[in-house]
Amino acid sequence: MTKVTITAGHSNTDPGAVNSNVTEAEITTDMRNIVAYCLKDLGVEAVTDGNGSDNDTLRNAIKLIKQGDVAIEFHCNAFHDPRAAGVEALAQPKDKVLCRKLCEAVSDVMGIPTRGDDGGFKSEGSGQHSRLGYVRNGGIILELFFISNPTELATYQAKKWPLAREIADVIAEHIGVGCKA
Predict the structure, then answer these.
(1) Any idea what DSSP says for residue 118?
(2) Domain extents in the chain
(3) pLDDT by residue (tens digit) across 80-129?
(4) CB neighbours (10 Å) of residue 98?
(5) Which of 134, 133, 135, 155 is nearest to 145 (CA)?
(6) 144: helix, coil or strand?
(7) Is 3-175 CATH 3.40.630.40?
(8) Residue 60, SS3?
(9) What's the rounded Cα separation, in Å, for the pair 89 and 1?
(10) Which of 32, 38, 27 minimizes the C-alpha distance to 51?
(11) pTM of the model
(12) Distances from the Cα of 65 to the Cαs of 59, 71, 140, in angstroms?
């Protein structure tokens, strides 16, 4: 069976960005679990960094990267201006095509823009991003949306299941399992 590594940003001890009572760690753990469920439904085994609300450390998530044909870690962007919007993916150039497809899927389901001039793809060294352990070890960081944007957060909460299904479909298609409906 084909394997994919799916991890959640932050950990049980690091909530990440926060908007009201919603933490980035809760969002990313939830998305990891739903995408893993959808992948299993498509016949793809998901290696994860925890079950339920468990969310392992970055150090342990990095160790899981090589267990999958592809590795994706979910995160949320945050900015002081609540109007900041969009999806982006940080990765090595080898994963540019998959990053663009993932960003397009998130953009389509949530009705948000892809960030930047390259379909949402950004290399590890772009902007404020540098020396990202997950990316340096071959994984993709998918910044789903801006948790600091109340509209994007509400859209995510309303559409997380269809979003997870679309992300799982893109991953399955990329690794050659099944076909996108």
Answers:
(1) T
(2) 3-175
(3) 999 999 999 999 999 999 999 999 999 999 999 999 999 999 987 665 55
(4) 21
(5) 155
(6) strand
(7) yes
(8) helix
(9) 26
(10) 32
(11) 0.92
(12) 11, 5, 10
